[in-house]
Specification:
Blueprint: E1 4-6, E2 26-28, H1 32-36, H2 41-55, H3 58-63, H4 79-85, E3 89-102, H5 110-116, E4 125-139, E5 145-149, H6 150-153, E6 158-162, E7 168-170, E8 172-177, E9 182-186, E10 210-215, E11 223-234, E12 245-248, E13 260-262, E14 268-275, E15 286-290, H7 291-302, E16 315-319, H8 322-327, E17 336-341, H9 346-349, E18 357-361, E19 364-365, H10 369-377, E20 384-391, E21 394-401, E22 414-415, E23 425-429, H11 432-438, E24 447-452, H12 457-460, E25 468-472, E26 475-476, H13 480-488, E27 493-500, E28 503-510
Antiparallel strand pairs: 1-2, 3-4, 3-6, 4-5, 5-9, 6-7, 8-9, 10-11, 10-13, 11-12, 12-15, 13-14, 14-15, 16-17, 17-18, 18-19, 18-20, 20-21, 22-23, 23-24, 24-25, 25-26, 25-27, 27-28
Amino acid sequence: MALCRTAKSDQTGAAFGLPQLFAPLRVCADWSCLKMRNMPLPGWIIALLLVALMATPASDAAAKKAVPSSQAQVQLSFAPLVKQAAPAVVNIYTRRVVEQVVRSPLFDDPFFRRFFGDRFGGNGLRRRERQNSLGSGVLVSADGMIVTNHHVIAGADEITVALSDRREFDATLVLDDESTDLAVLEIQTEGEKLPFLKLRDSDSLEVGDLVLAIGNPFNVGQTVTSGIVSALARTGIGVSDFQFFIQTDAAINPGNSGGALITMDGRLVGINTAIYSQTGGSHGIGFAVPSSMVRAVLASAKSGLHHVKRPWFGAATQTVTADIAASLEMKRPQGVMIRSLYQDGPADRAGMEVGDVVVAIDGHDVASPKALKFRLGTRMIGKNARIDVWRGGEIKGLTLNLVAAPETPPRNITQLRGRQPLAGAKVANLSPALAEELGLDVLSSGVIVLDVDPRGLARRFRFRKGDVVLGVNKARVNLVSDLVAVMKKPATGWRITLRRGGKVHTIRISE
């Protein structure tokens, strides 16, 4: 007779994480026990597996583990990649002096200042404070050119770059591009060649690709985190005007801004810029500026420009919805539809028409006006781009000449003064270049308010940055000179017509 023992649940089922239905199964020394129970074929298989598991001691499994004998066997280590890329990532420290005026709020009241000026209160007590901040940067050339974020160095009086070997250099700001949240710095290396990262085409990325983020989070020192590309072409983040971010789940925290996002070939594919967080820490949702935009900003910096000039499309567009796609007999919603053209602008000269749908630029799909702006922003002025448009039920290829937006009329930035409602407002003529820069409609015209002095009358009457003055007292305003002239005329009151947020408003002010 076969000797059998009953396997208790805490020794078999529980030990191996099996369901309780296997708990009363008998483990036998030979086959007789199984035969007597007349178990079907699946039961035989399960029983054999259990016997094998219990017959193999834990020590045997441990004995099979071995130390890898070669680097090739360590398949999940990023160490060689980090050794190659990390020296090109630097720490950036900035300092600035902020002057604060301590005075009674009464003296800043516009009504009080209108009658008494600065006779009371003087300039108040001035207090100077030094503010420090930190971030990261990436060496992109052997001669010391560095890319970082605009918000890392914004307003800095001094910029210091610390290399991975702890050497420090004073940095010079070469180009600052707020619209992309990128900045280019330069350090003097006295002819020494520094390690740097080559750029990889960000359009070659795919969702799921492995990436590493390198930076200096919380000023704890250089740190490497790993993750994957979670999404591409993210818009609506609100960080910059050119929103087309790479999203990654690699941990990015304060101090990582301006650091490198690299691929498994050790090349730079993005500049870490922002995170989505409700606490300030990483929640696995980080965003990086694609290298295609970094390349365009670098090209401007290397050519000696202090600001980036980008190609101008010369047309206002809107996203194609399902209803629009159906009306145009498109199989699915795609591209952006042209709703207005600037006369003799690039799109007009390329042969585009109102109602055309731009579906691709140089072979890259265009899904939204922001995607169109990004694709044009990564192209170089003086060259051509192929534009695919949907017209009359078919795709038509057009050639767009890439030119900069014209500064016509000249901006003529003016600070308005005197005893009139717009005193304290800084205004300028709207041109295609300024409209493009501010993200306004391509056909916008008039005089735009660039800034409002918090102590001026314009603030008291609630004029805002971005207001476009169209007329004063029934006189049309096209230029800053028109506005200055009409505001100097004696009047018992003012009736100012302006455009704000796409709507036209009229403000009446009595003397």
